[in-house]
Specification:
The chain has about 475 residues and is mostly helical. It is built from 19 helices and 2 strands. It has a two-stranded antiparallel ribbon.
C-alpha cells in the first residue's frame, strides 16, 4: 500500500473512532438523564413483569439474528426495533434501553464483531430508544399506554425520534468510513425501507396492547410477530432475487473487462463521472442512482458471444461488423430489462447512450431533449473516461484537452448544457485530475478481481480511431464504437 493511501486510511479510522466515541458519550448521557428523571417503569419490572423483560429481550435477540442487508453493503437492518419500542412503552425509557442494549450486545458478541462495532451498535440503538422514549414521555404519553387513541400522537413522536437518531447515526459512520456523501448514504439506506419500517413500527402498539391489556401476556407478542416474520420473509426472498440478478449483470461486466485489461475499470469510472455530472445539474437522488446504475451496465450486452471476435479484432471493423457492434446498446438494454426494478429509466438510459445530440447516433436516431437525460450524461462520461485513459496506442489526454474536445462536439454529439456543467464542475475536475497525476496507474489489470464492476471499450475500436491531429479526435470516436 502506498504511504499516502495508508495515511488516508489511518485518518479515516481516527475519524470513525472519534465518531463512535461521541455516539457512546451521547448514549451514556441520555441513559443517566433518563435514570435521574425517575420516569414511571410500568410495573417496576419485578416478579411476573421481570419475566416479561426477559421475554422482550429474548425476542429482540431472535429478530436481530434474522436481519436483512440494506443498500449499503456494510449495513444491515432487522425488525427487532418493534420490540425495542414496545419494551420502552411497557416498561419505561430506562428498562426499554436496558432491553435494547443487552439484546444488541448479546447478538454482537455471538457474531464476534470488533469491539468498536459492538460499542457503536449498542450505543446508537440505546440512544435512539432513549430519545424516542423521552419524546414520548415529554409529550405526556402514558407508561404503559392505556389506550391507543390517547397515545397515538405521542407514539408518532417516539417513532420519529427513534428513526431520526438511528438512521442518522448509522449513515454518519458509513459516510465517514466509506468516504461517501452523508445524504447519499442516508437516502439509500432509509428510503427503500422507510414505508416498511414505519408500518412495522405501528405493530409495537399491538404488542403493547396484547401484552398489557389481554390475558395473552407474553404470548401476545408471538401473535403480532409471527405474521410480521412471514411477510418479511416474502419481502426478503424477492429482494434477494433482485440483488442476485443485479450481481449477475455486474459479473457479466467483469467478464467483458477481462477480454481487454487495458480498459480495466472503465464502466465503474463512467459511473463515477456520470454520478457527479447528474448531481451537478440538480437531479434528485433516485435519478442520480438510476444514471449511475445505467452507466455501470451500459456495455453489459457485449457479453453475448457474437461480440467476442469483434472485441478481440485488431484490424478495422467491416461495415457489417460495425453494424453488429452498434447493436450492443440494444442487447445491453435487453439484459438490463431482465431485472424488474431496472426497467424504465435505467433500461432507456442504457439503450440510448450512443444517441447524438444532432440525431446522428443510434439505435433510434433521437435528437436533443428527446434523448433521455441519463443517456446524454453517460455519453459525456463515457467519452471523458476514454480520453483520460492510457491506451497502448496513446497516452491519456489532459483534462483541459478533454474540455476542448467536448466543447468542439457540443451540439453535435453532446448536450451543450451538460458540457457546460461538466466544464464548471470542481468535483469532476478534482476526480479526473487526481487520477491523471496519481502514482498508481489508473488502469491497473491487477485490480480486476476487486469489488468494482467494470467493462472495456472495444479493442476493435482502436483501428477505426482518427489521430489526435484530425478534425475528429480519437477519444470522441471511441465513445461511439
Amino acid at each position: 500500500m502506498l504511504p499516502g493511501r495508508a495515511n488516508v486510511e489511518e485518518r479515516q479510522k481516527t475519524f470513525v473512532r472519534l465518531y463512535v466515541g461521541v455516539v457512546v458519550g451521547l448514549a451514556l448521557g441520555a441513559f443517566v438523564l433518563a435514570v435521574s428523571l425517575h420516569f414511571p417503569d410500568g410495573s417496576d419490572a419485578t416478579g411476573a413483569s421481570f419475566s416479561g423483560v426477559l421475554a422482550f429481550a429474548a425476542l429482540a435477540v431472535g429478530l436481530q439474528l434474522a436481519e436483512h442487508r440494506l443498500a449499503v453493503s456494510s449495513v444491515t437492518g432487522a425488525i427487532s426495533f418493534i420490540v425495542y419500542i414496545a419494551g420502552a412503552l411497557v416498561f419505561g425509557p430506562v428498562w426499554g434501553a436496558a432491553i435494547t442494549g443487552v439484546s444488541v450486545a448479546l447478538v454482537q458478541a455471538v457474531r464476534r464483531n470488533p469491539p468498536i462495532k459492538v460499542a457503536f451498535n449498542v450505543a446508537q440503538h440505546v440512544l435512539a430508544i432513549l430519545v424516542g422514549a423521552l419524546i414520548y414521555v415529554g409529550m405526556d404519553g402514558p407508561i404503559p399506554p392505556d389506550s391507543i387513541d390517547r397515545s397515538l400522537f405521542q407514539f408518532v413522536g417516539f417513532v420519529v425520534g427513534f428513526f431520526g437518531v438511528n438512521t442518522t447515526a448509522v449513515s454518519g459512520v458509513v459516510a465517514i468510513s466509506e468516504r461517501r456523501r452523508f445524504s447519499d448514504v442516508w437516502i439509500s439506506n432509509t428510503w427503500s425501507f422507510a414505508g416498511y419500517d414505519l408500518a412495522a413500527s405501528v405493530l409495537s402498539l399491538g404488542i403493547v396492547w396484547l401484552y398489557v391489556h389481554t390475558p395473552l401476556g407474553v404470548l401476545g407478542i408471538a401473535v403480532v410477530v409471527l405474521p410480521i416474520l412471514f411477510i418479511r420473509h416474502v419481502y426478503q426472498v424477492n429482494h434477494q432475487l433482485q440483488e442476485t440478478n443485479h450481481e449477475l449483470l455486474e459479473l457479466m461486466v467483469k467478464a467483458i473487462e477481462a477480454r481487454d485489461p487495458y480498459t480495466s475499470g472503465h464502466s465503474q469510472r463512467v459511473a463515477d463521472i456520470a454520478r457527479l455530472l447528474a448531481r451537478e445539474i440538480g437531479l434528485g437522488f433516485k435519478d442520480v442512482a438510476s444514471v449511475a446504475t445505467a452507466a455501470l451496465l451500459h456495455d453489459v450486452g457485449k457479453i453475448h458471444e457474437e461480440y467476442a471476435p469483434l472485441l478481440r479484432k485488431e484490424a478495422k471493423l467491416t461495415v457489417e461488423e460495425k453494424r453488429l457492434m452498434d447493436s450492443h446498446a440494444l442487447r445491453s438494454a435487453e439484459l438490463v430489462a431482465t431485472i424488474s426494478n431496472l426497467r424504465g429509466p435505467v433500461e432507456q438510459f442504457v439503450r440510448h447512450h450512443h444517441e447524438n445530440f444532432d440525431g446522428s447516433g443510434y439505435p433510434d436516431g433521437l435528437a436533443g431533449e428527446d434523448i433521455p437525460i441519463g443517456a446524454r450524461i453517460i455519453a459525456i462520461a463515457d467519452t471523458a473516461d476514454a480520453m483520460t485513459t492510457d491506451r497502448p496506442y496513446r497516452r491519456a489526454l489532459t483534462f483541459e484537452k478533454v474540455l476542448s474536445v467536448l466543447a468542439r462536439f457540443s451540439w453535435k454529439q453532446f448536450d451543450p448544457r451538460l458540457v457546460s456543467a461538466f466544464r464548471t464542475s470542481a468535483a469532476i475536475r478534482h476526480m479526473i485530475e487526481n487520477r491523471l497525476r496519481s502514482d498508481v496507474p489508473f488502469l491497473d489489470p491487477s485490480e480486476q478481481n476487486g469489488s468494482r464492476a467494470t467493462s472495456p471499450l472495444p479493442t476493435a475500436a482502436r483501428s477505426s480511431l482518427l489521430s489526435d491531429a484530425s478534425s475528429v479526435p480519437d477519444s470522441a470516436r471511441v465513445a461511439n464504437e
